[in-house]
């Protein structure tokens, strides 16, 4: 019988809804969900080909134990695999303490998966060594929002794109990385020819093609640009003084700093004409509704938090926040990086946007979980976690739904760390990722189309994800693997409480516990349930008990979740990147995304239609840089 099941695309943070078509237990097709608020039926090439990725050939189907690294794994039963894993972790913890083990997880996981991983590490074992590949993309956005607005909450919605009068895209290339968002920008431009699009990007990116003004700034000069634009806003009387006085603090200190960021000085720093900086500031300040969209170009930087603060300042100074078509909108990279942030799935965060550094927050989480305490010492963040694995400070690591042997920076060091580890567990849907070669134990996980739970997209919208087919072989859901392991580990560690700590029979029970942890917090979802999400469709947070709808837009009343209710300007300065001052490293390289692929390509690489679009990675270089180095197009090919 043919049926359609509601789910989401598992690639980027736009979070498009899909309808998965099944017949006789097989996925036979897919279409965009016309009722999903993120995409209204549209899909990009990656989303549209999702049904072609369901191929058991590439899947890990049974637990496998590897006796010696480099050799093929031997099939194991789940009981034996998880018992052995629990014994290895318990022995390591007994001998070396809780911080000798770590979990490296993923923005691809569902919120419920994330929640139990976090509770396993911080609640049962007593270590904050749980970090995620979202660290590499979104941690600056988290810190930027918290430092300025007081909470990690993107205040805008996709609907704002269609109402904006100015769209400022900085450090993002949505035409390639967030294609459905870019369709909205195209729609907005078509509906309103007066809409001004400004793109700040060192490259003339695909998104810059639609721009009325392209600011081809030098890499790493974002703060100079934002401070320079603020300088122009102040000098030309475009600051909303009433808004600044009533709803913000710290403006004077920043205004003092940006006196030095004259258009001429900023032009020299950024490598763009002074007139272009003035033009961008004027458009931004004069318009009724200015919206900024930004992503990894700001986040992935040694001063990523300040990059985020710099663009948010422009909104606070002009009052372009908390009203239709306006606000600083951080685009999320991964499909559920937001869900991970909500449950505190990072080494320095706790559930429901609580801070590990805050003793009251730690006590609240300990009370919610019914444990004596949550450790105060921050865990290792992603890169440091692998460094600690290499030095032996961390001895056992559990990796889930991510491929660090391909995707973390400094690959040689990461692979050495994995080789140096005493014990590596990999929980993964695919059999042949690069990290699989380093695992002592491989645990098969369910994948897209097979999972139940929830995800949150860039615009704070929570969608219920439904399974269309069962997972292949003996693959199990991520949350199930974690809960089963936690119960076994708890027993071995002598915990009398482990069944009470991990009582879940299904993901809904986990969601309900997570929901309770948000009560009274900025992301309060106590009014939501699986039943409501299924009956009424995706909903934006906050959605507290008693509400009849989520919030399309935050901070409409000008009150921010800070101690005094005011947003904060941060006194930030431009600092050149360390590399820019090193003569041995004369070229700045920028990373980008291939439109038809996702991350390490373990899924998209299995689809010929996608794989054949670009058959190898590309390094693009300015013709002058090539000429100065005696390079010709294609020389890298010749190097093999
Ligand atoms: S990759 Fe992103 S834009 Fe494309 S369909 Fe999936 S969620 Fe939508």
Describe it for me?
The protein is an alpha/beta fold and 640 residues long. It has three domains: 2-57, Single Sheet (N-terminal domain of TfIIb); 64-136 and 374-540, 3-Layer(aba) Sandwich (Rossmann fold); 155-330, 3-Layer(aba) Sandwich (Dimethylsulfoxide Reductase, domain 2), CATH 3.40.228. Helices cover 37% and strands 14% of the residues. It contains 26 helices and 22 strands. The strands form six sheets. The protein has a seven-stranded mixed β-sheet with strand order 5-4-18-17-16-6-7, sandwiched between helices. The chain has a five-stranded parallel β-sheet with strand order 10-9-8-12-13. It has a three-stranded antiparallel β-sheet with strand order 1-2-3, with no helix packed on it. Helix 3 (111-125) links the parallel strand 6 (101-105) and strand 7 (130-132). The protein binds iron/sulfur cluster (SF4). Iron/sulfur cluster binds at residues 9, 11-12, 14-16, 39, 43-44, 46-47, 178-180.
SSE blueprint and pairings:
Blueprint lengths: L1 E7 L8 E7 L2 E7 L12 H4 L15 E2 L8 E2 L2 H19 L4 E5 L5 H15 L4 E3 L2 H15 L9 H5 L2 E5 L3 H4 L1 H13 L4 E5 L12 E3 L6 H14 L5 H7 E2 L1 H8 L4 H8 L3 H13 L3 E5 L1 H4 L4 H15 L8 E4 L6 H6 L6 E2 L3 E2 L3 H11 L12 H10 L4 E5 L3 H4 L3 H10 L2 E6 L12 E4 L8 E4 L4 E5 L12 H15 L5 H4 L5 H11 L12 H7 L2 E2 L26 E2 L39 H4 L11 H6 L6 H4 L2
Parallel strand pairs: 6-7, 6-16, 8-9, 8-12, 9-10, 11-22, 12-13, 16-17, 17-18
Antiparallel strand pairs: 1-2, 2-3, 4-5, 4-18, 14-15, 19-20, 20-21
Helix pairs in contact: 2-20, 3-20, 3-22, 4-14, 8-11, 8-12, 8-14, 11-12, 17-19
